[in-house]
């Protein structure tokens, strides 16, 4: 478990934690890292590998290492540095490919944030969520076939049951492999953060839990470390026969931040969502 409270030049006070579990797989392909070398900023990175025990694990480690180092070497805006770091990590992966690592690749989500805002770059299906004022919102795009199948359900082309059991459901439409990246998702502008917000970055093994279950855990008044433990234990308790590797990274924005006050409309909408959520839980 990587867990700590970070203070940088007296300006940054973010509690964060991360951990991964192997699930029912024979190997671990997830990897992650936190980097707080820059004053008043923290970098959070996650990669979910593909290509088997050696390939997937190596791809994740290589991409995270390269992304992290490059982020501190390039100049420009945060958005530009995130994109440049992704491109360099993709190039590095092909440079380090060996015969026994052919076909390796990974998803990647890189998040740069401070106490007031965050930006990200993302490839693949690893989800980035913001829990704020009682609402759980996924921020990044899903580059698996799930959104495509959901569109087909809405158009009446297939049923919900067919979408859930579709053989391509979990296939990736985009990944970091050293070749041209087909789809890249990046924040178009910094996302505002408010006191008490929680950020969750995870690998797709977390989808064993529903949004309601994830939201209930993030809403609890516990430490970031305990929150990660609760999330991963909840995944294990499901007892799925083919449970995938699962990684959860959580960052808490300090409750007291006098420099920024949440707008009243934000609380109003959050209250309505919370009431609806309570009714939904009672009927489940």
What would you say about this model in short?
The protein has about 280 residues and is α+β, with helices and mostly antiparallel strands. The protein has seven helices and 13 strands.
Main attributes?
alpha+beta; Phosphatase 2c, domain 1; seven-stranded antiparallel beta sheet; six-stranded antiparallel beta sheet; 7 helices; 13 strands; 33% helix; globular
- Count of DSSP strands: 13
Q: Poorly predicted ranges (pLDDT <50, ≥5 residues)? A: 3-10
Instruction: Count every helix, treating DSSP H or I runs of 4 or more residues as helices.
Output: 7
H-E string = EEEEHHEEEEEHHEEEHHEH
The CATH topology: Phosphatase 2c, domain 1
Q: How far apart are the termini?
A: 33 Å
Fourth-tier CATH superfamily name: PPM-type phosphatase domain
Morphology: globular
> How much strand content do the residues show?
25-35%
Q: Tell me, rounded to a whole number, the average pLDDT.
A: 89
Portion of residues within helices: 25-40%
CATH architectural type: 4-Layer Sandwich
Largest sheet: 7 strands, antiparallel
Judged by helices, strands and strand pairing, the structural class is alpha+beta
CA radius of gyration = 19 Å
Just give the CATH class.
Answer: Alpha Beta
Number of domains: 1
């Amino acid at each position: 478990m990587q867990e700590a409270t970070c203070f940088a030049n007296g300006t940054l006070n973010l509690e964060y934690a991360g951990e991964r579990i192997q699930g029912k797989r024979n190997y671990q392909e997830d990897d992650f890292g936190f980097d707080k070398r820059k004053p008043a900023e923290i970098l959070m990175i996650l990669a979910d590998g593909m290509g088997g025990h050696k390939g997937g694990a190596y791809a994740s480690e290589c991409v995270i290492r390269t992304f992290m180092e490059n982020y501190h070497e390039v100049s420009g805006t945060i958005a530009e540095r995130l994109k440049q770091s992704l491109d360099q990590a993709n190039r590095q992966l092909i440079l380090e490919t060996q015969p026994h690592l052919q076909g390796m690749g990974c998803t990647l989500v890189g998040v740069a944030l401070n106490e007031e805002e965050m930006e990200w770059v993302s490839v693949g299906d690893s989800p980035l969520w913001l829990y704020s004022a009682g609402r759980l919102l996924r921020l990044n795009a899903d580059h698996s076939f799930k959104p495509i199948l959901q569109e087909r359900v809405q158009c009446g082309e297939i049923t919900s049951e067919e979408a859930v059991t579709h053989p391509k459901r979990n296939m990736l439409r985009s990944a970091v492999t050293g070749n041209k990246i087909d789809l890249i998702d990046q924040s178009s502008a910094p996302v505002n953060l408010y006191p008490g917000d929680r950020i969750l970055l995870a690998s797709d093994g977390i989808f064993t839990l529903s949004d309601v279950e994830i939201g209930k855990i993030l809403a609890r008044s516990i430490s970031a470390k305990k929150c990660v433990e609760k999330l991963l234990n909840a995944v294990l308790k499901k007892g799925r026969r083919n449970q995938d590797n699962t990684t959860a990274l959580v960052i808490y924005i300090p409750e007291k931040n006098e420099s920024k006050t949440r707008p009243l409309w934000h609380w109003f909408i959050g209250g309505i969502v919370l009431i609806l959520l309570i009714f939904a839980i009672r009927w489940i």
